[in-house]
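=== RUN LOG ===
request id: a7f3
mode: sequence -> structure
chains: 1
length: 83
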Amino acid sequence: MTTLQEFRCEICGRITNNPDHWFVIEYSDAKLTVLKWNLEAANAAGARHFCGEAHAQVYISRWFESICSPPKPDFARPAQVKS
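=== RESULT ===
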């Protein structure tokens, strides 16, 4: 008996058990890898799934923004007094 596995696009939430033309992205703070869909990569811990090139690009853009932008100031935290 074959078990069908479902995958959800990280951007739009589309669910499929036939991920033709989908992409897998593996990432860390220092590295992002885009892979053509394969089941082994898709099932790896921390893998992200995308229903097409456009949604993979959205994720890549957000990743760049998160690591390349300077940290945003925390105005809720009290300012440090300099002597």
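=== NOTES ===
The radius of gyration is 18 Å.
The first strand starts at residue 7 and ends at 8.
=== END ===
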